[in-house]
Amino acid sequence: MRSHRWMSVICCCVLFIVVFLAVRWNMRGAFRAAGHPELGLLVFLIPGAVASFFARQERVVEPLIGVMIALPACVIALHTIFASERSFWQELAWLFSAVFWSSLGSLCFLLVFAMRRKRRGFDRRSSEK
Fold first, then answer.
1. Which of 106, 113, 114, 107 is CA-nearest to residue 48?
2. Cβ–Cβ contacts within 10 Å for residue 85, how many?
């Protein structure tokens, strides 16, 4: 059971880094050209939701641990790979907002999971009568 916990943490860590690299490389001009640069942060919902799917008990904490493990790698990538006109503190604030969106993704998954469980229980009670 402990290995299953680490699987969700590692899954979130790897997915967060992949999404970070994809947003920084591929989607750099896509959202700025449309006039909405903050829309790229919505993609960070995916790592939290997927890791929350794989988590068994701590569906919010385990994805957050994975994101916190991935954060130093993203900061190092910001300084070594990407040339930015923004300051270090602005980039760090952008990364922390990505952490927020990833945690929100795990909370959204938890909401959908709870709603499905409640609905499934409601359907069982109505079919028994």
1. 106
2. 5
The pLDDT tens digits for 34-72 are 655 567 788 999 999 999 998 888 888 999 999 999 999
Q: Which domain holds residue 69?
A: 2-128
Q: Report residue 81 as tokens.
A: 């790979």
Number of domains in the chain: 1
Give the DSSP letter string of the chain: -HHHHHHHHHHHHHHHHHHHHHHHHTSHHHHHHTT-GGGGGGGGHHHHHHHHHH-SS-TTHHHHHHHHHHHHHHHHHHHHT---SS-HHHHHHHHHHHHHHHHHHHHHHHHHHHHHHHHHHHHHHHHH-
For CA atoms 55, 57, 61, 62, give the dihedral sign: negative
**What pLDDT digit, counting tens, does each position of 79-100 carry?**
888 777 788 898 899 899 999 9
Name which of 62, 28, 36, 58 is nearest 48 in CA terms.
Answer: 62
